[in-house]
Design goal:
The chain is mainly alpha-helical. About 55% of the residues lie in helices and about 5% in strands. It is built from 11 helices and 4 strands, in the order H-H-H-H-H-E-H-H-H-E-H-H-E-H-E.
Amino acid sequence: MTGSTGKKAGDTLAKGEARGGDSFAEDDMSASTPVLRISQLDAYELDTALEQLVWTQLSRCFQYFKPGFLTPCEAELKALLQLLLWRFTVYSHGATVGQSLLNIRYCNDVSQAHGFQPLIRRQKLWFGLWTIGEKWLKERAYRLFLNRPAESPLLKVRRILDIFSGVAKVASLLNFLHFLRRGRFPTLTERLLGMRVVFAGSPGAHDVGYQYVNRELLWHGFAEFLIFLLPLVGAWRLRARALLAPPQRELGPPGTECALCGEWPTMAHTAGCRHVFCYYCIKSHMMAEVSFSCPCCGQEAQDLEPVKIQMEMTRFQ
């Protein structure tokens, strides 16, 4: 009995070690496999779209307030929303929303340990301070230095900030060019903090669905077919006969109703038959179709001639 129990414990320990070895191997594979550049850039686009969506929903809550109600504290509100997103994404899970959707996350590239190493607390705090604080400082500084007199001491501070901003933009450009070459650290903040993007799990083959592409191709082919077919069918004639005036439609007294629109004829004209048309109705149909026929009697339209209509005015008491 004791021997069998020891054997079961040994098998369980071996299975646990095997599973642990598999998880370590999976982490090593995810950390060593390079992430595509387009995936890293797409994650930033998704994060930006999420921030804009949240801000739009928040601003709609105040749409019935006085115009410009949020303007004095707009920079602070945006910073607060970004802080909440950072708290429940990067600080909690080590990945932004866009990265989570693309199955990638941050790892500690500064650590010398083997395999995947999560971000430490200091990296997360500095990342939130730099990303959120930079955006807030830009918006607040613009409004702080707006409409200041030329002798104001704040203008010197603005010049210093402009110099730092220019240096930061040049450094960001050089970092992005290096990212396009090496595929690591798309932003200067990530490079300075040692935050590298890796796969969140084992990078497997992704199935690509072509259903959407097939629907687009089918629709474009159908649209091209209709564009080719409609001029041959004569859509104006069918529309005039089927919708505007059926062949057996009973008209009012002669000259009191347009054979196309059914209203009192404006600038009444005739086209070679006994029916009367509005000038703009018959003229537009004749311009659209050369061999236009009267929708009531079927006679082909000829030269337009004005018609004089006598109208009796009856006074009801």
